[in-house]
């Protein structure tokens, strides 16, 4: 993976996690459940739900939401997949929808 792509994934994957965390919270999941499903710390989920993240991530989150990625990932989570399977799915979905290219533009702006 080239450097721009790696940096873009460093923006897109957290943005997907933010969007999915918000969606799962609305579905009634606790922060602890969300953190286990996404394979991240509960403190990170708390930060995401409180909106404590960078403007760059907020821009990427809007991109994720516009492309419907959080819904796709939420479906996978609701199927009871492991955190690793969810992470793999986020990577695959981001690449398939061309989100990485858009994230590169966000990162370079």
Question: Could you characterize the architecture of this molecule?
Answer:
By secondary structure, the chain is mainly alpha-helical. It has one domain (3-108). Helices cover 79% and strands 0% of the residues. The chain contains 7 helices and no strands. The two termini are 20 Å apart.
Topology of this protein?
Blueprint: H1 3-26, H2 31-38, H3 42-49, H4 55-66, H5 69-78, H6 83-96, H7 99-108
Helix pairs in contact: 1-2, 1-4, 1-5, 1-6, 1-7, 2-3, 4-7, 5-6
Beta-strand segment tally? 0
Taking the alpha carbons of the first and last residues, their distance comes to 20 Å
Helical content stands at over 70%
Portion in strands: under 5%
Arithmetic mean pLDDT: 80
Number of helices: 7
Number of domains: 1
Order of helices and strands: HHHHHHH
Low-confidence segments, ≥5 residues, pLDDT <50?
none
Shape: globular
Q: What is the rounded Rg?
A: 13 Å
Biggest sheet details: none
Structural class: mainly alpha
